[in-house]
Amino acid sequence: MRMILVGPPGAGKGTQATRLIDTYRIPHISSGDMLRACVKEGTALGVLADQYMKAGKLVPDDVVIGMILERIAKPDCAAGFMLDGFPRTAPQAEALDVAMRGAHVELDAVVLIEVPDALLEERAVGRRSDPQTGAIYHLKYNPPPPDIADRLVHRKDDTIEAVTTRVQKYHSETAPIIPFYLAKGILKRVDGVGDPDLITQRITAVLNG
Ligand code: AP5
């Protein structure tokens, strides 16, 4: 299975990806997680990416495209992968298409998790992540156990200002790639509002359908 999870910031891509990889047994490749790891390590790429990410802007295409194409060429992706957060611009979608054609492989599905803008700010601002386990919590919708509260991280781009920019960038840069996958006949739309278990069921149903 070679698939992409697309959706606005806070749609639940990361939450759903961690559930789906158990079923499909493919690597979860999150461009955001990879960039945050570079920022944490203080690499040259991380220093550059941090300036864009904390403001809610997209990291330049050439940086992200190189990083992801290198990752999906690794042996653990030979049987499939789940991309989360990539592609999110037309040049990224085109570069992925060219790379996959060159490797003689095809995408099976692009799952679009749809959530109204009005819900996105609250989802992002209330998010907390556990750096030890990678688990994603929400202060209201999925409260973390009290004993790990001290180690939880609030992302620098989960401020109201940065989320507003990220939602704008989603509509101006990422939403325009949707018709490309619709035309290929592999776009699966999923309602992202409701209990996360229900959304996992909806995604599994469209993937198996
Ligand atoms: P990235 O890390 O990809 O962030 P994003 O796309 O903005 O998505 P999020 O991680 O914010 O949300 P999510 O959809 O994964 O939601 P989650 O499951 O966590 O990118 C960050 C930045 O990196 C970008 O802004 C950019 O700067 C850069 N970048 C990354 N990729 C790039 C690329 N390809 N090109 C250029 N730049 C790139 O859920 C959110 C919250 O909601 C959680 O608290 C969760 O518990 C809660 N929640 C989840 N599901 C539900 C539900 N059903 N009901 C209620 N709450 C829920």
Give the topology.
Elements lengths: L1 E5 L6 H12 L3 E3 H11 L2 H10 L7 H12 L8 E4 L5 H13 L6 E6 L2 H9 L1 E3 L6 E3 L21 H15 L3 H7 L2 E5 L4 H13 L1
Parallel strand pairs: 1-3, 1-4, 2-3, 4-7
Antiparallel strand pairs: 5-6
Helix pairs in contact: 1-9, 2-3, 4-5, 6-7
Bound molecules: BIS(adenosine)-5'-pentaphosphate.
BIS(adenosine)-5'-pentaphosphate (AP5) binds next to helix 1, helix 2, helix 3, helix 6 and strand 6.
**What is the overall silhouette?**
globular
Output the helix-strand order: EHEHHHEHEHEEHHEH
Look at the helices and sheets and give the structural class: alpha/beta
| Mean pLDDT over the full residue set | 96
The kinds of small molecule bound in this structure are: BIS(adenosine)-5'-pentaphosphate
Largest sheet: 5 strands, parallel
Taking pLDDT < 50 over at least 5 consecutive residues as the criterion, the unreliable ranges are: none
Radius of gyration: 16 Å
Termini separation: 14 Å
- The share of residues in extended strands comes to 5-15%
DSSP summary: helix tally? 9
Strand order of the largest sheet: 2-3-1-4-7
Helix content: 40-55%
Overall number of strands: 7
Explained architecture:
This protein has about 210 residues and is α/β, with parallel strands linked by helices. It has 9 helices and 7 strands; from the N terminus they run βαβαααβαβαββααβα. β5 (about 125-130) and β6 (about 135-140) form a beta hairpin. The longest helix is centred in the last third of the chain and has 15 residues, at about 160-175. The protein is globular, with a radius of gyration of 16 Å. The two termini are about 15 Å apart. The model has no long low-confidence stretch (mean pLDDT about 95). BIS(adenosine)-5'-pentaphosphate binds near residues 13, 52, 53 and 86. BIS(adenosine)-5'-pentaphosphate binds near residues 53, 59 and 123.
